[in-house]
Structures
1.
Amino acid sequence: MLDRELKHLWNKSSNTAQISIDTKRLEEEFEAKVHNIQRKIRNRDIREISASVVGIGLFGYLLYEIPFPFTKLACALAIMWFVLIIIKFNKSRIKATPTKASLPISEQLDYHEQSMKKQADLLDSATYGNTPHLLDHF
């Protein structure tokens, strides 16, 4: 009897499932997630730029204090690297423009997908993330 009831229910159900989407709630959740991701990216940028400024100060002091030419060269190269990092993160922040809420959801999704790909490319292009950690070997 249970088998017949299940077959009857199965045959009785429609072929297409009725799915209702609350677009207002979907848009609110989407905006909240995008805002959260943008906040994390902004915090990462601030952290990287702050570390670069500290590095510039530290290596600038070492450049001034230590008399050895190779050390001065290494400090100058480190300072140039920190300046490059600051420039890269500032350019990525300038390129990131917020989307208009009046655009359709599909266009907003496409825009944010492209934005996330650019952020991933920015992180992949940073060679300091791909170098082995020196402290791990000790």
2.
Amino acid sequence: MTDDSKKLAQLVIQDNSQANNTGALSWRVTGRLSAFANPDASEAHTDFKLDLGLPTMPADYQYPTDPDLKAPIVANHTPETMLSNNVTQQLFFLNRVLESTTDATPLTLTYADAKLTVPNTVVKSGKYESTVTYTVKDGL
């Protein structure tokens, strides 16, 4: 991952219930990372780590100043580290009980601090590929 590619590491979510004025919902995004494979070397690894880091929120987003309110929101926004083993991890949770006014029409999350850790078990250089599968689920 390069500094330039990190600037483009974004997740954009559109809450249509909010956009259509039918009531904003709580929702969460999960992700799972497939094995990193090098087709030329017939090699696949399930121990790469992708840590997205806390996303940069849109410019008009304001975290609460009260630490007792801010802490659970930051925890909800902090993604779990994904391993390349197809295990689902929570990446973002918007809890409308805590964030009733957050605009998600759409909400753009930028992961400028994303970091990919390549394990020392990789012995062959080359191009490795993996797929991230995202799921969005509404409700608490």
3.
Amino acid sequence: MSELSISQRLVIGALVDRIVFGEEDVFSSRDAAELHRLLPATGIAKFSFEGTFSGPASQGGFAAGVGDVQLDGEKQVRVKAGGGREVRAGQWRLSCNRRCIQIVQVMGDDGNEGRACLLRFHRDGRPRDLMGRVTRALHIPWTPISVAFGTWAYWKAPVTH
């Protein structure tokens, strides 16, 4: 598999922008078909884990002219495991196989302000639909633990212009 050129990545990014940010409830079949044609098959992970752990953090040291200093605050650690190979194009991370393209916005967190969607295709290659990621949270009673997980919900239908 050859690397994508800068111009191919720009075209892929523009196609994804039109599909995701275009019409509210439909997307162009032609854009989806062209995106599928341009993307190399990377495979899509069946399972991946992405999490953020936070807790108190303390740092100490010596500052010239001040002496000993102590900084207290909050520390966040991001962990990502699983997942497959991805293609970066503009603000998007894309994974592709014969039947679907997984699209994740790089600029934000998937579960919060970021977007993630799944563009699905029929066996004959025609676009089927666009599913949006919906984040659900499960809080474990009597503990400070919450588990958030993503699932897919119908978002847009393809149209032929």
4.
Amino acid sequence: MSHYEQLRALLFSGAPTTVIFTPAQCSNSLQSGNAAPSAAMSGGFAIRDFMEVSANHIGFADEHFTVRPDDTAVLEFMQYRVMPTDTATITVRSLSPVTYQPPQAVSKNSCRIAGSRRCGPEPHAAVKMG
């Protein structure tokens, strides 16, 4: 069973599922098409809401406040699209919480789904992207 099929089965069964994203293990390009270095970090969040679009991809998103390395606070929107080819596109958009203007270009990351597994004492799953 592919990682996409495993993720689909987990989500549609209602099992708590966490996505783990490691940008440095993905290819990254800014909206302008220029290559950009990926951040050396990893993070994750629980997938709460999702949808499958015509068996073409599973989509879900997250939004949160964060502080950039230059100490600028931003509102960050992350959009995930997981394809049946076991690849994912993660689009990151940042906005100033004061002006709602983007302080940087949109970042698009293309990743391989690196794995999925059940973990912990409760039925829970983690999906690695990158």
